[in-house]
Protein: Carbohydrate esterase family 16 protein
Amino acid sequence: MHLSAFFGLVGIALAQSSADLTESPAATPSTFITSRIPTSIPLGATFTRSIPTVPTPSGPPIKYWISFGDSYTSTNFSVNGVQPSIANPFGNPVDILRKGKHNATWIEYITTRFNNSVTLNYNLARIGASLTYTSENTTSRRSFKGQFNLFASKYASLPTEQKPWQQNVNTMYSSWFGINDVKGIFGSGGNSTDPRIDELITSQFSLIDQLYFDVDAKEFLVINLPPLENAPLFASDKSRMEGIVRSWNNNLARKVRQFRDEHPISSIQLIDSYNIIKNLEETPSYGVKNGVWADKLHIKTQVHKVLAKEIAASLEAVVKAPINGTIGGPTTFLAPTPTMGHGSSATSGTLW
Structure:
């Protein structure tokens, strides 16, 4: 299944959704990857929609991916450098598909290797970024707010004719934050009941909400925390970090469900990096040897590659699921069926 097929189905669903929501019974949601962690659940500018101006090559149409995050997502992209193109889907730096201990991230693999469509990635993610910010008007990429503001000023506020994408049809927005936030919570003596967990995730979804209303974004991808309690950096109090991570992921799952309920004309996917990576720790496969950690906090390149395969499989599953006015995951969070394994759809080389 090609990326174009996924967005094609999304476009049909968006066109039909208004009537469906008022005249049809509640939709049957599609399935997506969620956390197996037990849960308690049984700017201001307005931007116009845009028209593509980039020429379409022979083959699948061009699709766009706007990504926000930290070092787990960053590719060191500069908004002032060479922009993404058909010949160079990342734009800059020119040596993006590099090799190293933990330099190649999931987003590099998923954009080029597990994707038969032409996908251009605008990656606002920055090493060390978190959900915490101190200035409303900052464009520092050290925070989600700063990354959002930079995207709004550099891209979303451009005149319609200068924007290459149709924001509500052929563009996905991904957000993976929390690693540096829980690192700070842990370092300051916090635990699973720390109020900052809810405050930070609420701020994350406030910005996702802005993308929905101000930028006309309709396709979202959110990723939960990996099993950081097993990272060497937190070996001094593994159980306390485990509690923080569980609390974070439970809260994130609730926020995803709430967003879906409040924004039915949209798709939001929650990817369970926690169990994907934990499974690799317990049962090494796909060439992952001698543990999953490249250093005290980061996962190895091979682990990023496996994560990319899993995300591709998850997004492809959405295409195969029925669409009845609502696109997204279940309203009740259940333990997912593991998809990792030889011969699974994750290895098919397609995306969405």
Residues 1-59, 319-352 have pLDDT under 50 and may be disordered. The two ends are 7 Å apart (CA to CA). The helical segments are 3-23, 106-112, 144-156, 179-187, 196-214, 238-262, 273-282, 301-320.
